[in-house]
């Protein structure tokens, strides 16, 4: 695990830097990623080993769509370590044809940085952005495969509940597991907190 705790990015300007040092999270800048980060995003997706090549292609198409029109269909947040190293990223967006439901489409952390709190940092920033848009729900779809068990534990640790399964969705024996976090009180008149 690289020690970047003393990292202070020159020229980071108004970018937010992590305040999580007390719990050992690497000091990174939290930014909206730029097109120049595409090769690093591809590398993180490929090294994860869990994604089929066509899934990597789809994730990169989402990133391209985000770069073309940030915040329209897709938004993104990234954790940047020294030397502009992309340590992790998340893509998310409002779910079409819903009122206040958002999807976390992709989240991945470089293998160098896993287990150091960056995944949680990314998801917390996604949730903050969703709440700022009066989002009610954040939905995540993932695989039931055994190699996704750590990912499912991560979602549970971040407060997401398994709410549904679609059997054999991705392939025979590979269900789609749907996780959900609710930000709003469904009893309130506006369905908001
Ligand atoms: C899933 C992933 C994003 C998690 O990121 P991370 O930086 O390693 O996770 P964090 O260190 O922030 O961990 C956050 C919480 O999840 C839990 N967690 C993370 N990895 C875990 C694992 N392998 N087993 C059990 N729990 C785990 C931690 O215990 C932690 O809980 P705590 O804060 O209460 O201690 C990262 O492992 C990853 O990129 N995996 C490969 C890509 C992937 O599967 N992406 C999701 C599908 S799109």
- Low-confidence parts lasting 5 or more residues at pLDDT below 50? 1-14
CATH superfamily: Gcn5-related N-acetyltransferase (GNAT)
CATH class: Alpha Beta
Number of separate domains: 1
Hetero ligands:
coenzyme A
Range of helix content: 25-40%
CATH structural fold name: Aminopeptidase
Give the name of the CATH architecture.
Answer: 3-Layer(aba) Sandwich
Give a quick account of the main beta sheet: strands, pairing sense, barrel closure: 8 strands, mixed
Q: What structural class do the secondary elements suggest?
A: alpha+beta
Strand order of the largest sheet: 1-2-3-4-5-6-8-7
Produce the secondary structure layout:
Layout: E1 16-17, E2 29-31, H1 38-48, H2 53-68, E3 75-81, E4 85-94, E5 101-109, H3 118-132, E6 137-143, H4 149-157, E7 161-171, E8 174-182
Parallel strand pairs: 5-6
Antiparallel strand pairs: 1-2, 2-3, 3-4, 4-5, 6-8, 7-8
Helix pairs in contact: 1-2
Commentary on this structure:
This protein has 193 residues and is an alpha+beta fold. It has a single domain (16-182), classed as Gcn5-related N-acetyltransferase (GNAT) (Aminopeptidase, 3-Layer(aba) Sandwich), CATH 3.40.630.30. Helix content is 26%, strand content 30%. It has four helices and eight strands, in the order ββααβββαβαββ. Strands 1-2-3-4-5-6-8-7 form an eight-stranded mixed beta sheet, sandwiched between helices. Helix 1 (38-48) packs antiparallel against helix 2 (53-68). The longest helix is centred in the N-terminal third of the chain and has 16 residues, at 53-68. It is globular, with a radius of gyration of 17 Å. It starts with 15 loop residues before the first strand and ends in an 11-residue tail after the last strand. The relative contact order is 0.13. The protein binds coenzyme A.
